[in-house]
Amino acid sequence: MRLLILSDTHLPQRAKRLPDQVWREVDAADVVIHAGDWVDVALLDELESRSARLIGVHGNNDGEQLRRRLPVVHRAELGGLRFAVVHETGAARGREARCDKRFPDTDVLVFGHSHIPWDSVTPRGMRLLNPGSPTDRRRQPHHTYLTAEVVDGRLDEVVLHRVRN
After folding, report:
1. Other beta carbons less than 10 A from residue 161's beta carbon
2. Which residues form the Calcineurin-like phosphoesterase domain (predicted)?
3. Residue-wise pLDDT tens for the chain (165 aa)?
4. DSSP letter string over 4-50?
5. Domain boundaries, the chain
6. Cβ(11)–Cβ(32) under 8 Å?
């Protein structure tokens, strides 16, 4: 199962649209995960119509329309792994311990908010992933997103991609 993991797209404030490179990944993915801060409901509509399956949450910059349609936390079983998606996890310091307590029945936690790519494992063994942003790099050197595969009940081939177009 191929996953595309996005967050913090901030359309149309930070970009008019998702880069073509990201749309190609949408077309190739079995599941698209978006960890919030969409800003424009039109992107949600477009991703829903174009994705094989879309999992998303709202973020702190998302208005009432998005908040009505998207939860704060989304949980899903994908290929035998228990995923949770949330926009914000708090400060980097102590993140692993906090997330272990907050998400005890989770194998993979996807989050956003910081625009800083993150890939770590908690003391309990939960994988924490933040894809950065494909449209608003802030102080990061590149716009980014993640892809991954779920194979035989394990997360495999987690790759941070730099947006090139």
Report:
1. 20
2. 1-152
3. 999 999 999 998 878 899 999 999 999 999 999 999 999 999 999 999 999 999 999 999 999 999 999 999 999 999 999 999 999 999 999 999 999 999 999 999 999 999 999 999 999 999 999 999 999 988 899 999 999 999 999 999 999 999 996
4. EEE----TTTT-SS--HHHHHHHHH-SEEEE-S----HHHHHHHHHH
5. 2-162
6. no
Q: Is the pTM of this model over 0.90?
A: yes
Q: Which amino acid is at 155?
A: L
- The secondary structure of 60-80 as a DSSP string is TT--HHHHHHS-SEEEEEETT
Any idea how long the chain is? 165
Superfamily grouping for domain 2-162:
Metallo-dependent phosphatases (3.60.21.10)
- The pair of structure tokens assigned to 69 is 């349609």
3-state secondary structure of 99: helix
- In a 10 Å sphere around its CB, with 0-12 CB exposed, 13-18 middle and 19+ buried, how is residue 165 labelled? exposed
